[in-house]
Write a structure and sequence with these properties.
CATH superfamily: Acetylglutamate kinase-like
Radius of gyration: 17 Å
CATH topology: Carbamate kinase
Number of helices: 8
Strand order of the largest sheet: 4-3-5-2-1-6-10-11-9
Strand content: 15-25%
Structural class: alpha/beta
Shape: globular
CATH architecture: 3-Layer(aba) Sandwich
Largest sheet: 9 strands, mixed
Distance between the termini: 26 Å
CATH class: Alpha Beta
C-alpha cells in the first residue's frame, strides 16, 4: 500500500524517449543512463507505487524520419517499433540489476523476447509488484509512442502519465532556440493543443483529455526528478 504522506499516486506510467538513453553519444544506449533511470524507478517503486514504462526508439531508428527520407511509412514505423523492443530489453536489464522484477510486454508478438501485451496480465504483473515495460508502441504504424503511453495509461488505470524530457517543463517556444521563452507551470489540454506546443502529439493529448488523465512534463536529467514527481512535488509542467 502507498503511504498517503509519501505520494498521492497508486500507479504511474513513465514515458521515456529513446533519445533519453543516448547520454553524451549520438545514438545507441548508454549503460550509465539506464542505471540512473533504473535507480530512480527503484526509489519510486520503494514507495509502494506501481510503475509501468513506455519507451521510444529514436536513439536507434525513428519511423517518421525514415519515411521523410523516402522509405515506406508503414515499414519505417515497424522498424521504429522494433527499436523500442531493444530499448525495453535494456531497461529490463537495468531494472533487474536494481532488484526489480520486470516484465517486457510487446505490442508486436515476439514470444522469445517479450510477452504479448494483454491488459489483464499487465495489471496482474503490476499488482504483484513487478515493473512492466511496454514495447513496440501500440503495435500499429502511424501511431507514436506518446499515443502508446496515453493508451496504455488508460488501459492499466494509471493515475498520471509522467513525460520525461530534455527540458524542465513546457515552454512557449523551444528554450534551446528562444532563450526568453516562457515556461508554464500548468496548462489545460485545450491550451496545449491550441498553442501547438508539441510536447506530445495531438492524438495523445486528446486521448488524455477525453479520459481526464493528468500529464506531468519534467526534466529527466535532473537527479531525483522522477522521485519528486512521484511524491507529488511541484516539478515541471502539469497538463490537466
Amino acid at each position: 500500500m502507498v503511504d498517503a504522506k509519501s505520494s498521492p499516486y497508486r500507479r504511474l506510467l513513465l514515458k521515456l524517449s529513446g533519445e533519453a538513453l543516448i547520454g553524451d553519444g549520438e545514438y545507441g544506449i548508454a549503460p550509465t543512463i539506464v542505471e540512473q533511470i533504473a535507480s530512480q524507478v527503484a526509489q519510486v517503486h520503494g514507495l509502494g507505487i506501481e510503475v509501468a514504462v513506455v519507451i521510444g526508439g529514436g536513439n536507434i531508428f525513428r519511423g517518421v524520419k525514415g519515411a521523410a527520407q523516402g522509405m515506406d511509412r508503414t515499414s519505417a514505423d515497424y522498424m521504429g517499433m522494433l527499436a523500442t523492443v531493444i530499448n525495453a530489453l535494456a531497461l529490463q536489464e537495468g531494472f533487474e540489476r536494481q532488484g526489480l522484477h520486470t516484465r517486457v510486454m510487446s505490442g508486436i508478438e515476439m514470444p522469445r523476447v517479450a510477452e504479448p501485451f494483454i491488459r489483464r496480465r499487465a495489471m496482474r504483473h503490476l499488482e504483484k509488484g513487478r515493473v512492466v515495460v511496454f514495447a513496440a508502441g501500440t503495435g500499429n504504424p502511424y501511431f507514436t509512442t506518446d499515443t502508446a503511453a496515453a493508451l496504455r495509461a488508460m488501459e492499466i488505470g494509471a493515475d498520471a502519465v509522467l513525460k520525461a524530457t530534455k527540458v524542465d517543463g513546457i515552454y512557449s517556444a523551444d528554450p534551446m532556440k528562444v532563450p526568453d521563452a516562457t515556461r508554464y507551470d500548468a496548462l489545460t489540454y485545450d491550451e496545449c493543443l491550441a498553442k501547438n506546443l508539441r510536447v506530445m502529439d495531438a492524438t495523445a493529448i486528446s486521448l488524455c483529455r477525453e479520459n481526464e488523465m493528468p500529464i506531468i512534463v519534467f526534466k529527466l536529467a535532473e537527479p531525483g526528478n522522477i522521485l519528486r514527481v512521484a511524491r507529488g512535488q511541484a516539478v515541471g509542467t502539469t497538463i490537466r
